[in-house]
Amino acid sequence: MYKLQTVHVQVPAEHNPNANLPNRENLITATMASKHLATSIRRFFRKPPAGTTLIHRHSLSTAAVAAAIEPLEEDSNGVTMKGVKISGRPLYLDMQATSPVDPRVLDAMLPYYLSRYGNPHSRTHLYGWESENAVESGRAQVAALINASPKEIIFTSGATESNNISTKGVMHFYKDKKRHVITTQTEHKCVLDSCRHLQQEGFDVTYLPVNPDGLVDLEKLRESIRPDTGLISVMMVNNEIGVIQPMEEIGKICKEFNVPLHTDAAQALGKIPIDVDTMNISLMSLSGHKIYGPKGIGALYMRRRPRIRVEPQMNGGGQERGIRSGTVPTPLVVGFGAACELAMKEMEYDDKRIKALQERLLNGIREKIDGVVVNGSTEKRYAGNLNLSFAYVEGESLLMGLKEVAVSSGSACTSASLEPSYVLRALGVDEDMAHTSIRYGIGRFTTEGEIDRAVELTVNQVEKLREMSPLYEMVKEGIDIKSIQWSQH
Amino acid sequence: MLRHVTNRILGQGLRLPATPAAVGGSGLPRMYHERVVDHYNQPRNVGSFDKNDEDVGTGLVGAPACGDVMKLQIKVDDETGKIVDACFKTFGCGSAIASSSLATEWVKGRKMEEVLTIKNTEIAKHLSLPPVKLHCSMLAEDAIKAAVKDYEDKHSK
C-alpha cells in the first residue's frame, strides 16, 4: 500500500470492511473517501516539486525518475549522467555562467567560517568587531577596483538583486516626477523583467534596439530621452555575446540631460578597467561569482555626489545604510573583496593571456571549417567571451555531441527553453543561424590544452553534423536555400 | 481500503508517462533517452541517393526557420513494391536526427502501403520522446509519406 506524501486523512483501518460500520461512520468514511479522492487527483495533476520522491508500487519509471534527483554516477571508467557517458569531468568553457573560486579567495574566506564567525552587526563583543572590520576592508577592496569610495558600496545577494534595487528602487522613489525608463533589448533578463514589472505599474519603458554588431546606437538613445526620463540602464559587457558598450559616450549623454545612468557590470568587473567618474555612472550592479569569487554575493554602487536615492526592496534592521537590510555575510564579503583585489593586480596579465587563447580558439576552428560567424562586434568585445554560429548545423544537436566540453548555447538563463536567444534575435541574426550558436567562455584558469581539445571536438562534431545536414548538401550543389519554398506543417 | 482503491485507480490512469521533466522552460533538466543518444552517435543510413533516379522517392519536409529539416529517400523495387533501401539527412536537434534515423530503419524491407501506416506515436514511444519533442516524430512520419508520394508521382507520369 503506498502513501502519497502529506496525506493527513485518517481513514479507519483498512482491514475493517465498511459494510459493518454503523451508518454514521459509513457516511464519514464516504465523505472522507471522496475528499481523499479529490485531493489525490489534485495532487497527481500538480507538478511534483523538485527533489520529492513518489513511493510507488507500480513502476512509473519516468515520472518517478523525473521527480527524484538523479545522482551522478562516477566510477573509474568515467562519469555517467543523463544517459551520456564521458571519461572524466568535462572541460569548463562556460565562464560567463560562473567561474571557479580562486584558491587564494577561498583561503581568505575560511577563517571567517571556522573561527571568526561573528555577526558584523554585533556591537558588543570581539566577534562582532572583527567581523565588521573584515566587511569594511572587503568594501574598500571592491571600491578600489571601480575607483569609488567605500561609502558608496552596498552589499547584496548578487547582481540580480542589485539590478532590482536599481531599476525598481529608483523609479519608485522618483515616481512623482519621473515616469520613463530607457533600456536596451539585449539586457539581462532581470533588468528586462523589472522593467516589465514597472510597465505593469504604469511607467513607460523604451527598449532601444541595437545595431547588428550589438552596440547601442547613440543617436537613437539621444532621441528617446524625455524630460521625465528617470533612468537609463545599459549593461557594460553583454553576458551572451560579450560586446562592450561605449559607456563613456553614454555617460556624457546622460550628464548632458541630467539622467541617472545605471549599468549592469557583472560581466565587466575585474575584466575591463572601470572608472565610475569618467563614465558618469550613478548606479552599478556587481557580481561576485563571475570574477572567481564566491556565489551568493554581489554589490551595488550608488553615487553620493550627486546623490541618487532609491527605495529599499528589503525591509528590516536597516543594515547597509537602510538600503538593504539583512545580516551582511562576512565570509562572502571577504571573498568578494579578495577576488576584487586579485582582479586589480592581475587584470592586465589575464587579459593578454585570454586574448591569445581566444585567437587560438577562433583560428583553430576557422582553419578547419568554414561558415563560422562571430556574433557581435569583433573589436569592441571582451576577449573571454566568444559566441560563434556554425552554418547549416543545429545548436542543440551540436551541444549533444559536445558533452566533453562544458559550453552553452545562448545564455544559461535561457538554455532551458527551446527558443533562439532573444539577444541574437535583437542583433538581427537570420532565423536559421539563430538556432545555432555556441558561447565559449575563457577564463583565468583555462589552459591551452583545453582550448586545443575544444577545437578538435567542435570541428569533429560540426563536420559530422554537416554530413548529416540536407542544407549543407543543397548549398554544395549550388542551390540557394533562401529560394526554396518550405512545407510548413 | 477506499484509499487503496482510489490510489490503484489513479495509479493505473497515470501509467502512460506524464513526464513533467521534459517540458521546455519548466526549469527541470531535460534527459535524452539512451536510444536517442545511440542514434545520434551512430546514425544509421545517413546519405543520399540520386534523386533523379527512377526508383528513388525523396521527401523533404520542415523549414530552417522552425529549426528542423528532414530529407528522407527510399529506393523501391518496381516489381514487388518493396522498399529495398533508405537513407536520410536531417538539420535539427538530437530527437529529430533520431526520429529520422529510426524511420529509415523501419521502412527498409517493407511494402510502400505498409510504411504509410507508421505513426508518429510509435516513433515517439520507441525513443521515449518528451512531449516537447513530439513534433520531431511528426515530421518523420511526414517525411515517409512525402517520400512515398514522390515515388508514386514519378511513376504515375
From TrEMBL, chain A:
Gene Ontology biological process terms from the UniProt entry: iron-sulfur cluster assembly
Reported cofactor(s): pyridoxal 5'-phosphate
Its EC number(s): 2.8.1.7
Domain (Aminotransferase class V): residue spans on this chain: 92-453
Domain of life: Eukaryota
Major enzyme class: transferase
Keyword Cytoplasm: no
Gene3D superfamilies: Aspartate Aminotransferase, domain 1 (3.90.1150.10), Type I PLP-dependent aspartate aminotransferase-like (Major domain) (3.40.640.10)
This protein's UniProt keywords: Iron, Iron-sulfur, Metal-binding, Pyridoxal phosphate, Transferase
Gene Ontology MF annotations: cysteine desulfurase activity; iron-sulfur cluster binding; metal ion binding
InterPro entries: Aminotrans_V_dom (IPR000192), Cys_deSase_IscS (IPR010240), PyrdxlP-dep_Trfase (IPR015424), PyrdxlP-dep_Trfase_major (IPR015421), PyrdxlP-dep_Trfase_small (IPR015422)
Protein family (similarity comment): Belongs to the class-V pyridoxal-phosphate-dependent aminotransferase family. NifS/IscS subfamily.
Protein name: cysteine desulfurase
TrEMBL record, chain B:
Pathway given in the UniProt record: Cofactor biosynthesis; iron-sulfur cluster biosynthesis
Domain of life, source organism: Eukaryota
GO molecular function, one term: 2 iron, 2 sulfur cluster binding
Gene3D superfamilies (UniProt xref): 3.90.1010.10
Annotated family: Belongs to the NifU family.
GO cellular component, one term: mitochondrial matrix
Principal location listed in the UniProt entry: mitochondrion
Biological role: Scaffold protein for the de novo synthesis of iron-sulfur (Fe-S) clusters within mitochondria, which is required for maturation of both mitochondrial and cytoplasmic [2Fe-2S] and [4Fe-4S] proteins. First, a [2Fe-2S] cluster is transiently assembled on the scaffold protein ISCU (ISU1, ISU2 or ISU3). In a second step, the cluster is released from ISCU, transferred to a glutaredoxin, followed by the formation of mitochondrial [2Fe-2S] proteins, the synthesis of [4Fe-4S] clusters and their target-specific insertion into the recipient apoproteins.
Annotated ranges, domain NIF system FeS cluster assembly NifU N-terminal: 31-155
Any one Gene Ontology BP term: iron-sulfur cluster assembly
PANTHER family in UniProt: IRON-SULFUR CLUSTER ASSEMBLY ENZYME NIFU HOMOLOG
Subcellular location, record wording: Mitochondrion matrix
Protein name as it appears in the record: Iron-sulfur cluster assembly protein
Cofactor: [2Fe-2S] cluster
Entry keyword set: 2Fe-2S, Iron, Iron-sulfur, Metal-binding, Mitochondrion, Transit peptide
SUPFAM superfamilies referenced in this protein's UniProt entry, alphabetically: SufE/NifU (SSF82649)
CDD domains cross-referenced by the UniProt entry: IscU_like
InterPro entries: ISCU, NIF_FeS_clus_asmbl_NifU_N
